[in-house]
Amino acid sequence: FAVVESRPSTFYVATAAGGLWKTVNNGVTLEPVFDDQEVSSIGDVAVAPSDPSIVYLGTGAPKNRQSWSWGNGVYKSLDAGKTWVHLGLAETRHIGRIVVHPTNPDVAYVAALGHLWGPNKERGLFRTTDGGKTWVNTKFIDEDTGFVDVAMDPESPQTLYAASYQRRRTPFGYNGGGPGSALWKTTNGGESWTKLTDGLPTSGDVGRIGIGIYRRDPRIVYALVEHAKEGGIFRSEDKGATWKKMSDTNPRPSYYS
Questions:
Q1: How high is the pLDDT of residue 211?
Q2: What are the angstrom distances between the C-alpha of 90 and each of 20, 74, 121?
Q3: DSSP 3-state assignment of 76?
Q4: Angle at 117 (CA atoms; ends 194, 57), nearest 5 degrees
Q5: How far apart are the first and last CA of the chain?
Q6: DSSP symbols for 19-34
């Protein structure tokens, strides 16, 4: 979901295999707004906080099913979903998250997973500062590891948290984790990244990680970490420097429930 916060009765619904939908009446009715494009698998949608007419869309859902459809990169709308322009990153295939700068809609970050079935170089945490005309991969791990989530500090947009995710689908199973999976932080808009480890699972293979920042107090950050023995909900009260496990979870890797 992507909500127009200045008018929350208007929001977008991105679906895994059914395109993008928009409502202007709290969901009483919805209309498809992406059906004339080449793909219908959507990973994420984000409305620019400073200008709700600007919408970024990442194609290719980030799940691990063997029947999963892939996308062809990032799109952007300047008229609240009426028309779309393709911004590239076609070989990212699956996009987990997009975040947009709170005051500058030309600045956005894309967590890109890359190919599900094999290695490729177009994986990483991409940044644009010109509205999507050009992209820079600010963090590349390897050809088997992409990024599945990214969150921006609402009070300090140069500070972001990002989750790398190593995975590989095969005809009869999948690897839902690996040493490439980790939680990262930048305080300079992606120029450099630091791996966060204090209190988080570090031994064995880590799977998918989800990130959430408490908007009233960005010192508080949550992470949902998939791990065979030590996974669960983790909480930081010092912007990711240290973490405490709050509860156990058992997320199903295929759907990340």
A1: 96
A2: 18, 7, 12
A3: strand
A4: 65
A5: 17
A6: -EEEESSTTSS-EESS
Radius of gyration of the chain (CA): 17
Q: Are 145 and 128 in contact (CB under 8 A)?
A: no
Paired residues of 99 in beta bridges = 109
d(CA 47, CA 248): 33
Compute φ and ψ for 13, nearest 5 degrees: -125, 115
**According to the model, what pLDDT value does residue 176 have?**
85
Mean pLDDT of 81-97: 97
How many other β-carbons are positioned within 10 Å of the β-carbon of residue 52? 17
Beta-bridge mates of residue 195? 184
How long is the chain? 257
Asked if the model's pLDDT at residue 204 lies above 90, the reply is no
Buried b (16+ CB within 10 A) or exposed e, 54-86: bbbbbbbbbbbeeebbbbbbbbbbbebbeebeb
Phi then psi for residue 185, to 5 deg, are -140, 140
